[in-house]
Amino acid sequence: MAKLVDNARLLRTRDTDFSGFCDMQELSNPGYRSKPIHHILEDYRKYGMPTTTIFFGDPLAFSLAREAILISPNTVNISSIGCSSGEEPYSFVAANLDLSDRVSVNGYDVNPNSIEKARKGKYNYGGEFFRDAGILPGTIYQADTEGLLTLSKSFKQLVTFQTHDISQEPLPEKQDIIFLLNVLQWYAALGREEALSNIRDSLSEKGMLICESRPVKPTGDISPYYWWMEDLTSFGFGTVPAKYGHSYDKPICTQAYYKL
Ligand SMILES: C[S@@+](CC[C@H](N)C(=O)[O-])C[C@H]1O[C@@H](n2cnc3c(N)ncnc32)[C@H](O)[C@@H]1O
What we know:
By secondary structure, this protein is of the alpha/beta class. It has a single domain (about 10-120, about 155-260), classed as Vaccinia Virus protein VP39 (Rossmann fold). Helix content is about 30%, strand content about 20%. The protein is globular. The structure holds S-adenosylmethionine.
């Protein structure tokens, strides 16, 4: 398969690319450095970037965005970069239907197959996630007894999707809010730098970036979601002040930054 991210030098390839994470793992799992991460990395370099995602995956990210929309006097452009098969932007819209005339929501991903799937809006799981979010079948989706979830045409029209590689260039239009969730951890320092520079250029003045941050060292969890994540204030972003400082009961939190 062709490499989905053109420039392989931007991706994580060696344990030194995520040495903070490995150092920490090594403490609790001696010998860790030579184990699973290399397999994960080998796979993603061979087969492409992992596309794992889920509906309603990060409620904190959604509430940060919602708060910002509520105080904005203008229509807000929101993008999910690395949207995979669309679950993230669709969930955001579904959870904020009351704001649908105040937002324009877009999904971007480097993987054209994921974008095609997102546009189709058919999934072989998901009904339970909508129901758990208090959204029943009807105008947004139908779920059959086999577990197939089909989004309605009118609902799909609330999100646009486009293939885009954020490590190569800024988005075609300025955004007020960008979700960048579960993406940066796959990149080496250089890749994160290039992606973040393009993201910064994609944001409107004082635009907001919402992504993971890892203010404390994680312990014992080997999910890539917990890989080392730097504070983005050295990349031309400021942190949104304390009232946004919620965190999960996990060694990671979702942080909102604004463009300086
Ligand atoms: C693990 S998924 C995360 C999906 C979703 N954001 C979530 O948190 O559930 C990572 C996604 O980022 C996409 N991605 C990776 N590098 C990218 C890039 N340079 N530009 C755009 N999308 C990228 C991958 O194709 C993949 O679909």
